[in-house]
Amino acid sequence: MSDFFHSLSAEQWLLVGFGVFIIVFLFIDLGIFQKRAHKVGPQRALLQVLFWIFMAASFAFLIALYKGKEMAYQFVAAYITEESLSVDNMFLFILIFRYFRISEHLHHKVLFYGVLGAIIFRGIFISAGSLLIAQFHWILYVFGAILVFTGVKLFLTKEDMKFEPKENLVYNFLTKNLRFTPLAPEDKFWIFKGKKIYFTTLFLVVCLVETTDIIFAVDSIPAVFAISQDPFVVYTSNIFAVMGLRALYFLLSDVMKRIHFLQTGLAFILAFIGVKMLLEIADIKLSSKYSLIVIAMILTVTIIASVTVRQKENKS
Fold it and tell me: Which of 2, 42, 265, 295 would be a feasible disulfide site paired with 302, CB 3.0-4.6 Å?
């Protein structure tokens, strides 16, 4: 057994430590925090956000220590990009919760299972993406083109995000093929009547939140692959971002609509990452350090511009 542990590389040790940490945290969350439904207040949400930022920063430090600064820059850039892009799908989470009138004290429970599913599905997507890139390197340029197109489309689209159940394939499929009942405790996913199982609105909402994350991952995962092609960096940065997303939701759910230029900022980030990838066709490469600086600058300008507009609106 000792020979086995001695044979592990630094990256494997980091991956094992990362896996153990995430599993332990999820068990603690499920066993302690999920015992009763509760609303997460802004102060507690802020502490959780700071905790996950600290853990991500600590992990980046370990990467720099054992794998080098370049990989650490890639991790931080990928983490910030994934977290920023994930903010956008929180708008849709809010719309789904409001449409189905899910009590605020149940949001934590729904998002927990959403995070659990995201860990599994993103692992599958990232593994598939890594295999495709290893076999067909040119697919990275396809990713780059998709990101530029998505960025331009996001910049030009000014319509407010909406949730229309009748236009949602998952909603239509589930409601047509499963038995649902409104007569059930609001915190249950299903109940039994006789020998038949009936699903609840909460189960439907979890499925919608999970599929929403999968759809948004179609944009965010190629963006992270454009920053780093290392599966270790891509997966760990994704999971750290996803784990912190739930706390960020509770912190920002009341103020997200006040970030006027969020969509514009995300559009520039996607376009920048796509252009960065396409420039490599001409053998022009931008280091991860400078990519991180550009992404941080875009986010900073977005926040400052949004705060300035908000202050002007309050004065008028």
Answer: 265
Question: Phi-psi bin for 38: left (phi > 0), alpha (psi -120 to 50), beta?
Answer: beta
Neighbouring residues of 255: CB distance < 8 A, sequence distance ≥ 6: none
- Beta strands in 23-146, from DSSP E residues, in sequence order: none
Name the token pair of 265. Answer: 């900022």
Instruction: Name, in order, each residue with C-beta under 8 angstroms of 198's C-beta and a sequence gap of 6 or more.
Output: 179, 180, 181, 184, 190, 191, 192
Q: By the 8 A CB rule, do 274 and 151 touch?
A: yes
Q: What is the pLDDT of residues 237-293, one digit of tens each?
A: 988 888 888 777 777 766 655 666 777 888 888 888 888 888 878 777 777 788 888
Give the residue ranges of the chain where pLDDT is below 70: 1-8, 29-40, 88, 158-163, 253-260, 310-311, 313-316
8-state DSSP, 183: S
Are 306 and 259 within 8 A, CB to CB? yes
Quote the pLDDT of residue 76.
92
Paired strand residues for 190: 199
- 186 φ, ψ to 5°? -65, -15
pTM of the predicted structure, to 2 decimals:
0.81
Q: How far apart are alpha carbons 65 and 282 in whole angstroms?
A: 32
E strand or H helix at 149, and its extent? Answer: helix 139-156
